[in-house]
Amino acid sequence: MTHVTGACPNCGAPLDFQWPSSVQTVCAYCKSIVIRTDVDLKKVGTVADLPPDSSPIQLATEGIYKNKAFTVAGRIIYEYEQGTWNEWHVVQNDGASAWLSDAQSQYCYTYATPHKDLPPAAQVRVGNRYNWDGIPFSVTTITEANYRGVEGELPFEYWDKTTATFADCRSTNADFATLDYSDEQPVLYRGEMVDFDALKLKTLRTFEGW
């Protein structure tokens, strides 16, 4: 797919898919969730009011990870026992999609990593050990989360969820991985914990008193 512009199928406002990899966006005017197909644009749902957010990151925030510039294109918001967290969809200058997780001032930068034979959610326990691409990981946390909404552009359809399970894993080094069970087939995301300042973020949100 290539760059696409059009009108929101619900309210007629202009829509612009800025990233070739995006298949879903949210209309800034009526909050309709719009899916991009090879033929047209289709409304599939509506975003409810998003929960309050104290993250300095926002759509269009720019940064650098391992010498690759990126721009925040969208996000998925989850709620769990400690509050909410954001999964920011970022698009790198080489066109690749990645994810910047933002939870309680902790940040992880990960990529979806195709992998066969991932364990089903029912078999995952804290302390379980797995080896992915020669790196040993241990499950450190299992989180049951509620889906709260989406914003901006995403590289896949994601709008009709209710709950999701995530198993966070770490290696003895700085490697980080998450088993994502929000769909029928689990997805492995691998990367590392990152320091906020190291990302050299700009176009951040400003708050009163900053």
What is the gist of this entry?
With about 210 residues, this protein is an all-beta fold. It has strands spanning about 5, 15, 25, 30-35, 40-45, 60-65, 70-80, 85-90, 95-105, 105-110, 130, 135-150, 165-170, 175-180, 185-195. About 0% of the residues lie in helices and about 50% in strands.
Give helix % range. Answer: under 10%
The Rg value, from CA coordinates, equals 17 Å
Query: Biggest sheet: strands side by side, in what order?
Result: 7-8-9-10-15-14-13-12
Largest sheet: 8 strands, antiparallel, barrel
Choose one word for the global shape.
globular
Q: Based on helices, strands and strand pairing, what is the structural class?
A: mainly beta
Report the span from N to C terminus.
41 Å
The ordered H/E elements are EEEEEEEEEEEEEEE
